[in-house]
Amino acid sequence: MSEPFTVAIDGPAASGKGTISRAVAERFGFGHLDTGLLYRAVGVKMLDGVDPVAAAQALSRADLEDEARLRGAEAAQAASKVAVIPEVRAALVDFQRAFARRAGGAVLDGRDIGTVICPQAEVKLFVTASAEVRARRRYLELKDKGSDTTEDEVLADVIARDERDSERATAPLRAAEDALRLDTSHLSIDEAVAEAVRAVAAKYKAN
Ligand code: DC
After folding, report:
1. Nearest CA to ligand 1 atom 13
2. Is residue 1 in a domain?
């Protein structure tokens, strides 16, 4: 099937939405766009002295390539700061919407996909977990990569980002009314992926 089919997956930092999104995309053969990476790329440009609005308007694929830097804690905080600027968000809308309607299906993960970018998405998931569980996951990931940050520092980062993402005026982090909520606090990765796959399969077959 080559019709567009959009899966919107939103949730806070380290909720598991990235892992779930990649798994769903692979399972159904859909394209996957991690929209956080766009904001991270703009954030990194700001750290390098570029005006964030100009950076968002001129963003190119090459800006998304330095994954090591884009995935770091500094880029995450910078992303969350540029993400409050309405002009930055506006500059990234068309690219995300075009990706969402690509032939063959698309999974987009972020904060405002089901509410603002793709309110018509065929499937909407809102993935959550407690701040402590999310901080623990992110801490273990960072430790694995050789980082020496403490779990408390990661928790403080997660809470600061949650607040900024949830309280901004434009497109704040919140679940769409018709989103299926998936709390992964007590689920294994396999269990969380299985639930998401079930939700998508139910709608995909019907289309
Ligand atoms: O998903 P992530 O942790 O890579 O996102 C980094 C930041 O980018 C996040 O703190 C808020 C912002 N963001 C956003 O505002 N809207 C999105 N759709 C995705 C990310």
Report:
1. 36
2. no
The answer to whether position 170 is within a domain reads yes
- In this predicted structure, which of 21-35, 52-66, 138-152, 174-188 has the lowest mean pLDDT? 138-152
Any atom of ligand 1 within 6 Å of the Cβ of 10: no
Q: Which amino acid is it at 203?
A: K
Token pair in block for residue 108 = 């987009």
pLDDT at 190: 96
- Report the amino acid identity of residue 51: D
Question: How many Å lie between the centroid of ligand 1 and the Cα of residue 90?
Answer: 14
Residue 139 lies in a domain: yes
From the CA of 205, how far away is ligand 1's center (Å)?
30
- How much is the pLDDT for 207? 66
Report the relative pairing of strands 180-183 and 123-128 from DSSP bridges: parallel
Beta bridge partners of 183: 128
Nearest CA to ligand 1 atom 2: 36
Give 172 Cα–ligand 1 centroid separation in angstroms.
10
Containing structural domain, residue 200: 6-206
- The token duo for 43 is 């954030």
User: How many folded domains does the chain comprise?
Assistant: 1
Judge if the beta carbon of residue 13 lies within 6 A of ligand 1.
yes
Query: Can you give the CATH number for the domain in which 105 is found?
Result: 3.40.50.300
The answer to whether the CB of 192 falls within 8 A of the CB of 16 is yes
Residue 74 lies in a domain: yes
